[in-house]
Amino acid sequence: MAELSAYLHLPFSAMGVLLTEMLTAELVQARAPIVRKARTDRSLLEAVMNGLQRL
Amino acid sequence: MDFKGSDTIPGPRAEDQLPHTAQSAAKIVIVGGFGVGKTTMVGSVSEITPLTTEETMTQAGIGVDDNFGSASKTATTVAMDFGRISITEQLVLYLFGTPGQQRFWFLWNGLFEGALGAVVLVDTRRLEVSFDVMGRLEERGVPFVVAVNAFPDAPRYAIEELRTALDLTPDIPIMECDARRRASSRDVLMTLMRFLHSLAMTGSRT
């Protein structure tokens, strides 16, 4: 969403309204992000650490 | 293609497009007071050309935005910076730099949803700006590490002195960094990851 609003030069909030409309009309798909759980998944953190090390 | 007057809006460059193999995403937020270098940090580690909604500071900001200590600063982030790092073919890490000015705090609500943790970027010349930011994070229960951006003309302090000055508990990592350098910014992210990892191990401070 941030990416879209930057490319389209639209305010973030306007993008939100537009995307919500588009979601309702099934024009776009939303994928659920990883949510921070009570305990963060250790394997995820380890994967991120490994990835950062390769930068 | 992307010059003024062109009718088409330039989309992402081919190499900036999210790979189709990406299945999941993790999010890290970089926060700090006004002018501490959040935009610089996102830019130095992001693998895509970072997207920024930075605008030139105008007359309207004079007297409203306190730019003490950064008089030469002519642009500031009005909404946010956005960067991305591919961790594996399936996993991407998103970086969000968020404005420090108090009047943009309403943006924080959506931004911290689902974030793994945060980096608080600090300028030693204006420590007081960081208090509000850290207070807000604690309120929200977002784990964070503190990175002191070493501006060339800023006074240097011992890390322990800064810890005391910032009133940080001993468990919160604090380090010096140079937001302009990729390796240095990466180390900050690594520190955050190790901190989150240790939290996950002990199960405390969720």
How would you describe the overall organization of this protein?
- The complex is a heterodimer of chains A (55) and B (206).
- Chain A has 55 residues and is an all-alpha fold.
- Chain A has helices spanning 2-8, 12-24, 42-53.
- Chain A has one domain.
- The model of chain A has no long low-confidence stretch (mean pLDDT 76).
- Chain B has one domain (21-201): P-loop containing nucleotide triphosphate hydrolases (Rossmann fold, 3-Layer(aba) Sandwich).
- Chain B has five helices and seven strands, in the order E-H-E-E-E-H-E-H-E-H-E-H.
- Chain B has helices at residues 38-45, 108-111, 128-140, 159-166, 182-202; strands at 24-32, 51-56, 75-86, 91-98, 117-122, 144-149, 174-177.
- Chain B has a seven-stranded mixed β-sheet.
- Chain B starts with 23 loop residues before the first strand and ends with a helix.
- Classes of the chains: A mainly alpha (55), B alpha/beta (206).
- Chain A binds chain B through residues 2-3, 5-9, 11-12, 33-36, 38-42, 44-53, 55, and chain B through 9-12, 24-27, 45, 51-53, 79-80, 82, 85-88, 91, 93, 96, 107, 113-116, 182, 186, 189-190, 193-194, 196-197, 199-201, 203, 206.
Question: What topology emerges from the helices and strands here?
Answer:
The complex is a heterodimer of chains A (55) and B (206).
Chain A: H1 2-8, H2 12-24, H3 42-53
Chain B: E1 24-32, H1 38-45, E2 51-56, E3 75-86, E4 91-98, H2 108-111, E5 117-122, H3 128-140, E6 144-149, H4 159-166, E7 174-177, H5 182-202
Parallel strand pairs in B: 1-4, 1-5, 5-6, 6-7
Antiparallel strand pairs in B: 2-3, 3-4
Family (chain B): Belongs to the GPN-loop GTPase family.
GO molecular function (chain B): GTP binding; hydrolase activity
Protein name (chain B): ATP/GTP-binding protein
CATH class of chain B: Alpha Beta
Question: How widely separated are the two ends of chain A?
Answer: 25 Å
Described by the principal axes of the CA atoms, the overall outline of chain A is: elongated
**Nearest-integer average pLDDT of chain A:** 76
Total number of distinct structural domains of chain B? 1
The gyration radius over C-alpha positions of chain A equals: 16 Å
Q: How many distinct domains of chain A?
A: 1
Q: Poorly predicted ranges of chain A (pLDDT <50, ≥5 residues)?
A: none
What is the N-to-C succession of helices and strands of chain B?
EHEEEHEHEHEH
Main sheet overview of chain A: none
Count of helix runs of chain B:
5
Q: What level of helicity do the residues of chain A show?
A: 55-70%
